[in-house]
Amino acid sequence: MPELLERALGAYLGFAIGDALGATVEFMRPREIALQYGVHRSITGGGWLKLAQGQVTDDTTMSLALGDALLLGGHPALARYAQGDDTLIRGIGDAYVRWFKAKPVDCGNTCRRGILRYLRDGSLEGTYNPGDGGNGALMRNLPAVLATLGDDAAFERLSMAQAHLTHHHPLSDAATLGMGRLLGLLLGGAGHRACQQWAAQWVADNPDFRFTPYRGYATAYVVDTVQTVLHYLTLHEDFEDALVATVNQGDDADTTGALVGMLAGARCGASKLPKRWLRRMQPDIVQAISDQTGGLLALAAAT
Ligand code: MN
Ligand code: MN
After folding, report:
1. Which residues have CB less than 5 Å away from ligand 1 (the ion)?
2. CATH number at residue 157
3. Less Cβ around it within 10 Å: N or C end of the chain?
4. Among candidates 285, 251, 266, 244, which has minimal Cα distance to 134?
């Protein structure tokens, strides 16, 4: 497998694995997890959403909705978007509406509010809202990174447009761009040391997200989410070590897990993902991810 595809597939499958692993302990405190599981390291389903084994949540299915919309529009829609035609972004809004109407297992409050606003008046973003600092726009941005790989201006434009459909907050924006650029770096072959150096420089430029010393908050507030992700991603080089440490921090564990799985998965590549976890994932999700990954990279290559 070409190295880029191997890393991109590692990112998308790693994301889904982190979602499935973390969802079991979502909203639990570290001490509760320790009491109930010792160290939580098995994909078993359950959790507050009562998931089947290997089932993913909104993090993965909303990412797939974004990926679907990008592939549906294809290269012509991306090219027209660069010229100022926002049909592509309406296509993304429509995909989020379809996703919402299909009754996903979970949907964050800010995502719900934004989708209902788009459905009501067709507007592509709400006004700045201090309550929009959740991680919902950040969590689903992976397909936008793949579809614009190698074109930073296109990446920024598309990421902000998909984000603003539901979230309009400077910290959400900064986090979405930052984690997207880090993903791009890792897809390009950066290793653990380069990852640590990038993170140190990025938090120097974006001090809200400084993660040393780590405060131990892993909530859905985008600052807590990013601090948790960068802390464990830079602490552990190994995919499994990084992901287990992250989800055992609890709280928004499916989302912190998904993001660490994405970044650590890009760093190690799909062939290094633990087989015992991959085998537990639902086959239709693995198939959808595999199909999308190649298609999205082809979109980037065509630009
Ligand atoms: Mn979720
Ligand atoms: Mn979550």
Report:
1. 57-59, 106, 254
2. 1.10.4080.10
3. N
4. 251
Nearest ligand atom owner, CA of 104: 1
Residue numbers of the domain that contains 61:
2-302
How far, in Å, from the CA of 108 to the mean position of ligand 1? 8
Of the candidates 40, 200, 63, the one whose C-alpha atom is nearest the C-alpha of residue 145 is 63
> CA-CA distance, 33 to 29, in Å (whole number)?
6
Using 70 as the pLDDT threshold, list the residues of the chain that sit under it.
Answer: none
Contact 260, 111 (CB under 8 A): no
Total structural domains in the chain?
A: 1
165 in Cβ contact with 96 (< 8 Å): yes
Determine if the pTM surpasses 0.90: yes
Span 71-106, pLDDT tens digits:
999 999 999 999 999 999 999 999 999 999 999 999
